[in-house]
């Protein structure tokens, strides 16, 4: 990933951490968190794409996440 994209993702993570959680992190940890979030997000998107269609009930997504969390 290029530096500009990582910087944008790091800024996004910093905004979420500060705005939603009231937490601040140093730049190194923000970059680590951005990478972790990207991995998790990709995994969730791939899992959902394999099991859900556009017309599925929105609650089906939460159900799949809950089921996968138990396995």
Description:
The model has no long low-confidence stretch (mean pLDDT 84). The protein has one domain. It has 3 helices and no strands. The chain is elongated, with a radius of gyration of 15 Å. It is an all-alpha fold.
Descriptive terms for the model:
single chain; 71 residues; mainly alpha; 3 helices; 0% strand
Topology:
Blueprint: H1 3-21, H2 27-51, H3 59-70
Helix pairs in contact: 1-2
Provide the structure class: mainly alpha
Count the domains: 1
| Oligomeric nature of the chains | single chain
Characterize the main sheet.
Answer: none
Count of runs of 4 or more consecutive helical residues:
3
Enumerate the spans where pLDDT stays under 50 for 5 or more consecutive residues. Answer: none
Written as H for each helix and E for each strand, in order along the chain, the element string is HHH
Strand content: under 5%
The proportion of residues forming helix, as a percent range, comes to over 70%
N-C termini distance? 31 Å
- Mean pLDDT value: 84
Rg, rounded, reads 15 Å
Give a short overview.
With 71 residues, the chain is an all-alpha fold. The chain has 3 helices and no strands. It has helices spanning 3-21, 27-51, 59-70.
């Amino acid at each position: 990933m290029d530096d500009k994209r990582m910087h944008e993702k790091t800024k996004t993570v910093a905004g979420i951490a500060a705005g939603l959680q009231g937490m601040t992190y140093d730049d190194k940890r923000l970059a680590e968190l951005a990478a972790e979030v990207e991995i998790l997000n990709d995994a969730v998107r791939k899992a959902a794409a394999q099991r859900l269609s556009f017309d599925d009930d929105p609650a089906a997504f939460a159900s799949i996440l809950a089921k996968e969390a138990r396995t």
